[in-house]
Input
Amino acid sequence: MSEHSSPQRLPPLNALRAFDAVARRGSILQAADELGVVRGAVRQQLALLESHFGVALFQRDGRRLVLTEKGRAFAESVGIAFGILMRASGVLAADDRRTVRLGVPSAFAVWWLMPRVADLQASLPDIDIDIIPMTMVEPLARHPDLDAVIMGGEYRPAPDITAIRFMEDEFGPVATPDLAIHLGLITGVEALAGAVALTSRSAPRLWDDWFAESGRLPIRFARNREFEDLLLAIGAARSGVGVAIVPRTAVGEDIDRGTLTAPYGFIRRPAGYSLCIRSGDAKDTALVGLVEWLVRAGAVRA
Output
């Protein structure tokens, strides 16, 4: 058996850290910033790791580094391993109180979770829920520092991740009543052709999903405006800038007050919302408690 293939010799930890950072970030520069080193040091560690195994872990696509098939599989395992180490270190260094670091889409945190956070804390008095807002929601596998992540309809199954669906939701286009009248939205979906479509980078496919799931043909909008976060897109809709596609949960109060109107109603979003945890944590007492609370709270529609 060659030295490269020996199962007894683990690769250097720094090389694994560099590989994990590049795999998650997709960039040597961003990985170097995260690790606090220069780009050359990251490149050196990647070369060391590939030399250790005798296989290519990345391939060049123009100026981008793309994981090979073997590299992708290895990156998933390395991410899981680092996550286990980080959480174990946190438990060892912590006092008797357990802290759960929960990644939450920032818009969902504002419109649904934070109004219920007092009940959450009262229901889990021995656990501190550290809510981490996420403008760009990424899979849990990319965040070894988090214990769990709430995902909306954008969730896709991933190895070693368990997703527990805790709430349904509906979504649809909304606009101010004045804009809806001006565009004649009540006459039919075709009227959207004169609208400015408001989208967000945090949920970029909502319009496509709505057309597909409502059985309507896609419309070419007069213009598109993209915002960094869904909260900003909703704010623009409230100001009359255009028509936003949003979860009903986000705008229920606006609809009740008449600030916004939903000219085509809302359709059910099959995926709803899920809590994603690592499969190895499925019996973790704190996470079990969090799941139970989410399921209970999600069953009560505002």
The longest strand covers residues 161-174. The chain has two domains: 13-88, 96-302.
